[in-house]
Amino acid sequence: MALTPKGYATHSLQAEEKLNSKRKEKAWLPVIGMKLEISTPFLGVHRPFVGRCCQICTPRSWESLFHKHLLSLGFHNAIRVTEEDTRYRGWLVRRLCHFLAISNWKIPSSSPGDFEKKICHSKRVQDVMLQQVPQARGDSPILSQSPAGWRSEVLQVLSQVQAPISLLLVRLCSWALLKVLTRLFHNVLLHKGQVEMVRKAAQVPDVPLVFLSTHKSCLDGLLLPFLLFSQGLGVPRVTWEYQAFTPPLRALLSQLGGIFLPLEAEHVADRNQGALSRAVLTSYAEELLKSRQHLLIFLEKPFSSAPHLSAPGWDWLALVLGAFQAGAVPDVLLVPVGISYDMAPDVCFGSQASSARPLSFWSCLLPICRALGQGFGCVRVDFAQPFSLQEYVANNCSRQSCIRKSLEELLLPVVFGKRTSLMDCEKSEEGLLGLRAAVALKAEEQILVGRLGLHSLTAGVSCSAVTAVGIMSALLLHKHREGVFLSRLMSDFAWLTEEILLHQRDVAFSGQLRALVLHSLTLLRGCVSLHQLSLGDVLVAPQATEPAMRQLSLHGAALLPIFMAEAVGACAINALLVEMLPFLGPTALPADIILSQQELQEKTLVLVQLLPRDFLLLQPCQPAFCYCQDVLDKLIQCGLLVAEEASSERPACDTSRRRFSGELMWKETGEFSDDSDYDEDSGKRCFKISQLDNCFDFFLFLCSLLSPVLRTYERAAAFLAESCCPQPEPAYTEKLQGILLRKAREDGSFVRALKQDTKLQSV
After folding, report:
1. Which CATH number describes the domain made up of 65-128+149-392?
2. How far apart are alpha carbons 483 and 728 in whole angstroms?
3. For residue range 207-266, what is the model confidence (pLDDT) as tens digits?
4. Which residue(s) pair with 426 in the sheet?
5. Distances in Å between the alpha carbon of 100 and those of 88, 92, 109, 172, 342?
6. Could you state, in order of their start, the residue ranges of all structural domains in the chain?
7. Which residues belong to any copy of the Phospholipid/glycerol acyltransferase domain (predicted)?
8. Could you count the other beta carbons within 10 Å of the beta carbon of residue 2?
């Protein structure tokens, strides 16, 4: 069932005609002078424009390359090519429009002719050769002409990294890929305003573009270059895994613009081994950016259910940052990219995903041929606002660092029951250090690369639109595991769509509500069961098989970054209720329990310190305590918490007798605020869980979103406690993964366990 690529969500979601006035926008100003654009999304009237860059780290980039008229440009289906996209008209043109349109697409000039010569004569490469060729030391510090022996060695390393782009092969493969995409997907949508921003960024003189993309499928490496090529942005250089492909397929990808990390570059234990490969790789990155060729870097590995910066993505980011710091280019514009699939027809999703064998040409082509004719829904590609690497580095280097402690120093006192203040401390950035040794950097530079990667990954995930299949999978997995009527499922689908728009995140669909629900269920037909009832309704239930649960979990994971703050807050409330469980009476209800703001903030902060920053999508410029305050604000805004005030006290909204000159709500004492930055009485505020009908279901939904990760932590801790003697790390890791996999298979429904608890219905 095809979906029309409209620019705005239609009025057909009857249950959500207007947003209630119960929610009010509440803006916090963590930085003095920050400009705000507050807008309340109205389903059918307003659709948020996603992808604005960080206003704290790159304030000048936030104001450039963006105009309000870009919001109304709408969407474009990139695979819908007609005779209007060509210079010709007629009956024959309509049948050859794909070939004629691709032949007219412009390809900017590729790498210069003396590209290899520049790399061979670069100072970095010659310095390495002077160390490896002792007889050359007495001639000259810089060799005027490369000897044939080591020149061939340099060219051999360079051939492992890249190959000249074949323009004929690019056009031929683009035509074939366009034919395949039209058979696989209903549409591939691009926002015209986002594309216009990228076009303006590409026109900045002497500044190359580097696209930093999320990775949802192995098809991304072919889809994104095709889209950039079709929009007149040229053919970028695409980063691929060297060991993931056989030599013939690797040679084909190289001629299409693929580049690879040489295997020898990962050796740093031996100073000589891999030194030449690293020198050639670094020189290649500098010359690539000098020639203003666009570069596409994937920040994460495919099939990951949670965002995580991959090792190859870290290495390529380090090369780009090193080229900029070496003065190869005055600046680099970074463009985060988000990709959303209804269903990804991935050639690696089956047996190839778990096997270590490299992919061959036929192992990729045969599954694609079998998938032709099957509907895989829609694709949405979003380009975030480009930001300046020079501005980011300057602001990051000038920022003062707060007190940083290791995770052990932060959480061990909490485990032992000692009350310590965590509000003035941050977790150490050891996790941001280099993931492998393809690029040798100092510790400060590695932390800077890690921050840049986390910042870009957060921007890419934040600008990604949510698909209808993702919403349906989250509802079936985390809210209706036992089954639900189709009429109730349609109502929940509209409710969750409204919540996503309220969080300033876009959706990748439009159309009538019933058509959207049936479209999602059709794509998930292998994971759900439909039962026609005599009452005229349909019972929809997810299948209890392991492949079905895995697929639903993979699609439903797209909603966790949107509700991450509320899910962390809900789990913190759940932890406090569990601690109070032994002291409650048999008739006590969760709504009768009073929670103090200080306890909520401390419990939330412990959870934030425990979870990785890339999983939380917590930007490096945002301190943990400010994030915890934002979590509390969102819990109040969504209605899960209500303020509890004593009758003898003055209402919280009464400000008639307060002296604002002496008690400011925000006082800047440094880069970030501490305990003195907020009102003294704010820590004494108390809250209760809301008694509204839908709040309990929403609370369970939020807890279920984060429960798989927390249960994994719990089982890993139990495994560590049961382990006795030291073991080799590979065997130890394999045993832990086996136990976690077995426990996950034996684990019942988390939501069912919550509903069966009659003493406390929020554990």
Report:
1. 3.40.1130
2. 45
3. 999 999 999 988 999 999 999 999 989 899 999 988 888 999 999 999 999 999 887 765
4. 404
5. 9, 11, 21, 12, 30
6. 65-128+149-392, 561-660+683-747
7. 209-342
8. 13
